[in-house]
Specification:
The chain has one domain: HIT-like (HIT family, subunit A). It has three helices and five strands, in the order αβββαββα. By secondary structure, the protein is α+β, with helices and mostly antiparallel strands.
């Protein structure tokens, strides 16, 4: 379902979009928001979601497909960037659709990876941020995104 503005959704992502719930935001425009997962697989794990409520990949409008994947590519580049990003060696990106979709709002995971990090298949161990650490990771990714965008301009 696409939120036409008349229907209110109270999922976690809609609450972040409206400002009712805090998140470490790395990107926001009129169509998409990207923020750190509060229980990351690895620190720097970002979720990308449409601002409008969209249930899952099956209901994602065609005109949002490229922006979602384009932002995923930019965030991946930001994570790999060693100047002001995370210096990751690669990334893992995934979208759960219905099964294992813990939030009923479309979101794409972008997870920073390094060789030997222990991630095997689809087993996702989780970690937590220390106080103030999420803001630091979000700022680093946002700075690297800004650098990438300025180079693309």
């Amino acid at each position: 379902m696409i939120n036409s503005g008349e229907e209110r959704h109270d999922d976690v992502i809609c609450q972040i979009v409206t400002g009712d719930l805090d998140a470490a935001v790395v990107h926001r425009d009129d169509r998409l928001i990207a923020f750190l997962d509060h229980r990351p697989v690895f620190k720097g794990h970002v979720l990308i979601a449409p601002i409008a409520h969209i249930d899952n990949l099956l209901t994602l409008p065609d005109d949002l497909m490229q922006p979602v994947l384009g932002l995923a590519r930019q965030i991946s580049l930001a994570m790999i960037n060693s100047v002001d990003g995370l210096g990751a060696q690669g990334t893992f990106s995934a979208i759960n659709t219905i099964v294992s979709q813990s939030i009923p709002h479309l979101h794409l995971h972008v997870v920073p990876r390094t060789k030997g990090d222990g991630l095997r298949g689809f087993f996702w161990p989780r970690t937590r941020y220390a106080a103030g650490e999420a803001a630091d990771y979000a700022a680093r990714i946002a700075a690297a995104l800004a650098r990438i965008r300025s180079n693309d301009a």
